[in-house]
C-alpha cells in the first residue's frame, strides 16, 4: 500500500509505517524522534493509541472493545461526523467513525511552520451511495457531495494534533455537527478535575439538554456526567493528581467541549465496556454541537485539536499557548 504524500517527507526517517490488525484493517503508526508514538486506523480514521516517550498509553481503550468493522472501537479518538450523539436522523455519532478511510495522495497544503519537527499522515473520506441516501441533504445528488480530510501529526516532543477539513463540493448547502470523541486514560476518576470550563453554560444531556451554569472552581466527578459546555475557551486542562500529569487540550474552530463519564450504573449496560472501567477513563471532546455548521457550495470548514501531556506543575503555562498546527 502506498503511503501517499507526507506532510514532511524527511520525517519518514522518524518512523512511519503501515501495519494491519487481525481484521486486515490498515493502521498507520507514527513515531517521534524522542520515542513517542501514535497509531491511526483506516477504519473510522480513529486514533487508537497515543504513547509518550516512556511507552505509557495516554488514551483509554476498553478491555471489552469490539475490534471489528463496521462498529467503532470503544476508546481512542473517534471522528464524529456529520452528527454527534442522537441529535439527528443518522446512526449515533454519525457514519464517519464507521467507514473505511483511504490515504490521501493529493491533499491540499496546510499552512504551518513546524521546521520538520512533526511526522504526519493524511487521510480522506468521501461519501458512499448509502451515506448520501441516509443524509437527507444529499438524497438524489451526486456521490461526491463532501470531502473530509484528516491530518494526524505527532511532534518530536510527543504532542498529538489532528486537523479536520470538510469541504462542500456539491451544488447545495449542508449542515453538520462534529466532535473529536476523545477517551483519555486517567488513574482514578475521583482524583481528576477539569480546569478552564468554570462559570460556563452547559447543556445537561442527563436533564433533556436543560441549560445550566457551572458553579464550581473546577469540574470534579462523583456521579455520571454528560454535558456540552458551550462557547468554551480554546484551551482546557485535565489534571490527574495520582499520575501527577495533566492533559492540555487546545482547539480551533470548535466552540464546545463535551465532558462524559458513564459512572457505575450506565457502565453495566454497555456490552463493549467493563463494569468498573469508568474509573480509568474520561471523555473530553473538542466539538461543534450546540449550533450546526453550515457550508455553502465550495466552502470549507477546519477544526483543529492538539493534545499535550505535561507535568501538572507546568500546566498553567501551557494553557496560554496557541494551537500550533
Automatic annotation (TrEMBL):
Highest rank taxon of the organism: Eukaryota
User: Record keywords: Nucleotide-binding included?
Assistant: no
What keywords were assigned to this record?
Isomerase
Question: Which reactions does this protein catalyse?
Answer: alpha-D-glucose 6-phosphate = beta-D-glucose 6-phosphate
Q: Is Isomerase set as a keyword in this record?
A: yes
CDD domains annotated for this entry? D-hex-6-P-epi_like
SUPFAM superfamilies, sorted: Galactose mutarotase-like
- GO function terms (MF aspect): carbohydrate binding; glucose-6-phosphate 1-epimerase activity
Q: What is its EC number?
A: 5.1.3.15
Cite the Pfam families for this sequence.
Aldose_epim (PF01263)
Record family assignment: Belongs to the glucose-6-phosphate 1-epimerase family.
Xref: PANTHER family: APOSPORY-ASSOCIATED PROTEIN C-RELATED, GLUCOSE-6-PHOSPHATE 1-EPIMERASE
Entry protein name: glucose-6-phosphate 1-epimerase
Amino acid at each position: 500500500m502506498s503511503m501517499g504524500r507526507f506532510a514532511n517527507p524527511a520525517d519518514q526517517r522518524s518512523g512511519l509505517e503501515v501495519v494491519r490488525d487481525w481484521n486486515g484493517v490498515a493502521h498507520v503508526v507514527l513515531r517521534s524522534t524522542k520515542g513517542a508514538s501514535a497509531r491511526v486506523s483506516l477504519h473510522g480514521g480513529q486514533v487508537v493509541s497515543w504513547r509518550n516517550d516512556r511507552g505509557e498509553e495516554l488514551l483509554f481503550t476498553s478491555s471489552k472493545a469490539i475490534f471489528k468493522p463496521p462498529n467503532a472501537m470503544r476508546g481512542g479518538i473517534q471522528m464524529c461526523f456529520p452528527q454527534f450523539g442522537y441529535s439527528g436522523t443518522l446512526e449515533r455519532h454519525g457514519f464517519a467513525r464507521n467507514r473505511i478511510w483511504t490515504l490521501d495522495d493529493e491533499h491540499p497544503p496546510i499552512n504551518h511552520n513546524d521546521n520538520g519537527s512533526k511526522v504526519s499522515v493524511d487521510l480522506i473520506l468521501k461519501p458512499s451511495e448509502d451515506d448520501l441516501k441516509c443524509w437527507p441533504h444529499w438524497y438524489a445528488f451526486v456521490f461526491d457531495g463532501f470531502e473530509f480530510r484528516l491530518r494526524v501529526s505527532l511532534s518530536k516532543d510527543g504532542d498529538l494534533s489532528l486537523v479536520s477539513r470538510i469541504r462542500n463540493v456539491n451544488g447545495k448547502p449542508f449542515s453538520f455537527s462534529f466532535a473529536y470523541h476523545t477517551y483519555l486514560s486517567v488513574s482514578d476518576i475521583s482524583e481528576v478535575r477539569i480546569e478552564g470550563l468554570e462559570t460556563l453554560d452547559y447543556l445537561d444531556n442527563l436533564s433533556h439538554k436543560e441549560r445550566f451554569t457551572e458553579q464550581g472552581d473546577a469540574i470534579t466527578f462523583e456521579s455520571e456526567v454528560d454535558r456540552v459546555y458551550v462557547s468554551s475557551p480554546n484551551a482546557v486542562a485535565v489534571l490527574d493528581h495520582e499520575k501527577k500529569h495533566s492533559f492540555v487540550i487546545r482547539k480551533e474552530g470548535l466552540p464546545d467541549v463535551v465532558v462524559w463519564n458513564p459512572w457505575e450504573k450506565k457502565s453495566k449496560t454497555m456490552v463493549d465496556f467493563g463494569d468498573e472501567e469508568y474509573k480509568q477513563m474520561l471523555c473530553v471532546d473538542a466539538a461543534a454541537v450546540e449550533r450546526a455548521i453550515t457550508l455553502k457550495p465550495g466552502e470549507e470548514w477546519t477544526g483543529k485539536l492538539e493534545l499535550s501531556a505535561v507535568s501538572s506543575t507546568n500546566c498553567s503555562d501551557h494553557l496560554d499557548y496557541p494551537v500550533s498546527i
